[in-house]
Specification:
CATH topology of the largest domain: Aspartate Aminotransferase, domain 2
Radius of gyration: 22 Å
CATH architecture of the largest domain: 3-Layer(aba) Sandwich
Bound molecules: 4'-deoxy-4'-aminopyridoxal-5'-phosphate
Number of strands: 17
Distance between the termini: 39 Å
Strand content: 15-25%
Largest sheet: 7 strands, mixed
Shape: globular
Number of domains: 2
Length: 403
């Protein structure tokens, strides 16, 4: 991989902040966009813009073709069996809310249970809590060890005859842990229970194959995989999606409407009420093409190397505490240094041009488990370099000396 050449594809990476070269290490929050993704958004508005589906005119048909071709790009990327299984949403959060709402309405009654894990993002906790408030379901939580690995023995023990679904992230946005979701899905299926994979943090970094995982549902956001904001995906096995009621009502999702009786559209449109972000889906497809062009295997290997290098360098800093020491880990490192508040460290690094995230990372229950309020988090993409890691390490050292 020619990183310098790759970096040239991302215009923002050559900007400065406070007169310093930008060192962008907040990729778990959102990734930067290659020029061809940005251009595709502008180009489509310039030359193809028209509302999709049902249009008889040329532009509408062209826009529809682009939109549906993007669905096929996503289908191939995650290896879904059919484009009927690829629902476009606004992102991971909306995908989870859709699923919780539809699945909860159809398949869960008071006293039924969902299993999630202690390291989940709020977007995979709060929708279940809202459902609990509406329907009286119970939430069971898989614990972890101090390295940040889920305890599979405890997971197995959580199943009961009231368990209706399991919903767990594939990669932690805080600890970097890569959870063994394939094995966990197998266990759930042995109990006859479907499994939702939150792939928000895995999809940009590793090959995610829904058939290989045998995932029943899988969700991700376009903006975390170099695509535009405002577009995401809910994958669901067709046999499940067929049995779920619509989430939102409106245009697109209907077959026939009368005041007496309304029938719903077929998949995937049943779950896509209203005008979709068809410009965004084109951008997402371009981003996926770009990632495919580099190759996920190459990306994974490079990022693995970079993360190992970063871990080694960071551990040499006195008073460094790293949260998340799982054997299988992704390109995210959360840490604290001495008693420096995470916010102070993040703010001072920012002044050096280094963009990291601080706080609870939308995982407050995980912070409670770790006994802390927040961390500093550096998260990497394939356009980051060892030189940038050195800048981070030197920056932390400088902040340490100030305290
Ligand atoms: N799940 C995980 C694991 C995440 O890291 C994030 C984003 N930080 C989300 C869900 C929510 O994604 P979005 O805000 O794009 O809906």
């Amino acid at each position: 991989m020619d990183i310098q050449k790759i970096r040239e594809d991302f215009p923002i990476l050559s900007r400065t902040v406070y007169g310093k070269p930008l060192v962008y290490l907040d990729n778990a929050a959102t990734t930067q966009k290659p020029r061809l993704v940005i251009d595709s958004l502008v180009d489509e508005y310039y030359s193809v813009n028209a509302n999709v589906h049902r249009g008889v005119h040329y532009l509408s048909q062209q826009a529809t073709e682009l939109h549906e071709a993007s669905r096929e790009t996503v289908r191939q990327f995650i290896n879904a069996r059919s484009t009927n299984e690829v629902i476009f949403t606004r992102g991971t959060t909306e995908s989870i809310n859709l699923l919780v709402s539809s699945f909860g309405d159809e398949f869960m009654q008071e006293g039924d249970e969902v299993i999630i894990s202690v390291m989940e993002h709020h977007s995979n906790i709060v929708p279940w809590q809202l459902l609990a408030a509406r329907k009286g379901i119970a939430i069971k939580v898989i614990p972890m060890n101090d390295r940040g690995e889920l305890l599979l023995d405890e997971y197995e023990k959580l199943f009961s005859d009231r368990t209706k679904i399991v919903s767990v992230m594939q990669v932690s946005n805080v600890l970097g842990t890569v959870n063994p979701v394939k094995e966990m899905i197998k266990i759930a299926h042995e109990h006859g229970v479907p499994f939702l994979v939150d792939a928000a943090q895995s999809i940009p970094h590793m090959k995610v194959d829904v058939q290989e995982l045998d995932a029943d549902f899988l969700v991700f956001s376009g903006h975390k995989i170099y695509g535009p904001t405002g577009v995401g995906v809910l994958y669901g096995k067709e046999e499940w999606l067929d049995r779920l009621p619509p989430y939102q009502g409106g245009g697109e999702m209907i077959q026939y409407v009368s005041f007496e009786k309304t029938t719903f559209n077929e998949l995937p449109f049943k779950f896509e009420a209203g005008t979709p972000d068809y410009i965004g889906t084109t951008g997402l497809a371009k981003a996926i093409d770009y990632v495919n062009g580099i190759g996920l295997d190459q990306i994974a290997a490079y990022e693995h190397d970079l993360t190992a290098y970063a871990l080694k360098q960071l551990k040499e800093i006195p008073d460094m505490r790293i949260f998340g020491e799982a054997v299988e880990r992704g390109a995210v490192i959360s840490f604290l240094v001495g008693d420096i508040h995470h916010f102070d460290l993040g703010t001072l690094l920012d002044r050096l041009g280094i963009a990291v995230r601080t706080g609870h990372h939308c995982a407050q229950p995980l912070m409670q488990r770790l006994g802390i309020e927040g961390t500093v988090r550096a998260s990497f993409a394939f356009y980051n370099t060892k030189k940038e890691i050195d800048t981070l390490v030197a920056g932390i050292d400088r902040v340490r000396q100030m305290f």
